[in-house]
């Protein structure tokens, strides 16, 4: 059994006894659905979501821009309009889209329109890319809930899904392939420290 992380309890992803299934989720067991979130650096977003019970895989990539098949150099330079994002495959029998959306907001500073943490610029903006009207409605509800909790304006948009381009291979599972460098980057960037300031412990 996977360990129960405190931040999963905060985000409502599991109960105190580790239970997360509802009757509706039980009916969906074994299926695979997709969600797309842009949360700043995709290394960190991928690492955060792959901890969640029910998430099968997370792929780092680019979405929302004007250039087909963009490279990391093009996106990071700016001007293509792309976000760094993560495409998540998950089992709706184990975790719902609503819980993923709620969790997403607690992994970012949704009041920052200029990027995330030490990463600034258009590619590091936050967004939820809804793949259908049902996801849009759930995402908008999660956004409204985040605003009520923070008592501040949430600037993270909910957008219609656009073509998603997987990032280069060396970006995939970066936190697993380069754990020391990843931990150094995440710490120096101030991601977790800022999340505590925004959301509390």
Features:
two-stranded antiparallel ribbon
Describe the structure concisely for a colleague.
The protein is 37% helix and 19% strand. The chain is α+β, with helices and mostly antiparallel strands and 201 residues long. The strands form two sheets. The chain has a six-stranded mixed β-sheet with strand order 7-6-1-3-2-8, with helices on one face.
> What's the helix count?
9
Query: How many domains, in number, for the residues?
Result: 1
Percentage of β-strand residues: 15-25%
Strand count, sense and barrel status of the largest sheet are: 6 strands, mixed
- Taking all Cα atoms into account, the compactness measure Rg is 16 Å
Helix content: 25-40%
From the 3D structure, determine the CATH topology: Peptide Methionine Sulfoxide Reductase, Chain A
| CATH level-1 class | Alpha Beta
Shape summary: globular
> H/E element string?
HHEHEHEHEEEHEEHHH
The CATH superfamily is: Peptide methionine sulphoxide reductase MsrA
Q: Separation of termini?
A: 25 Å
Derived from helix and strand composition plus strand pairing, the structural class reads alpha+beta
How many extended strands?
Answer: 8
């Amino acid at each position: 059994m996977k360990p129960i992380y405190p931040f999963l309890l905060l985000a409502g992803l599991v109960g105190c006894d580790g239970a997360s299934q509802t009757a509706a989720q039980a009916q969906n067991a074994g299926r695979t659905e997709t969600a797309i979130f842009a949360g700043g650096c995709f290394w960190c977003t991928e690492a955060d979501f792959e901890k969640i019970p029910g998430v099968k895989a997370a792929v780092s990539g680019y979405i929302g821009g004007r250039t087909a098949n963009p490279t990391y150099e093009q996106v990071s330079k700016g001007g293509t309009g792309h976000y760094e994002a993560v495409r998540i495959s998950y089992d709706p029998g184990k975790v719902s889209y609503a819980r993923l959306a709620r969790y997403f907001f607690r992994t970012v500073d949704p009041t920052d329109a200029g990027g995330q943490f030490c990463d600034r610029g258009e590619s590091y903006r936050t967004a939820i890319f809804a793949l259908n009207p049902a996801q849009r409605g759930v995402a908008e509800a999660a956004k409204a809930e985040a605003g009520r909790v923070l008592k501040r304006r949430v600037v993270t948009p909910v957008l219609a899904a656009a073509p998603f381009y997987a990032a280069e291979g060396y970006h995939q599972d970066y936190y697993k392939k380069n754990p020391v460098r990843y931990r150094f980057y995440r710490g120096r960037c101030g991601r977790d420290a800022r999340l505590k300031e925004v959301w509390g412990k």
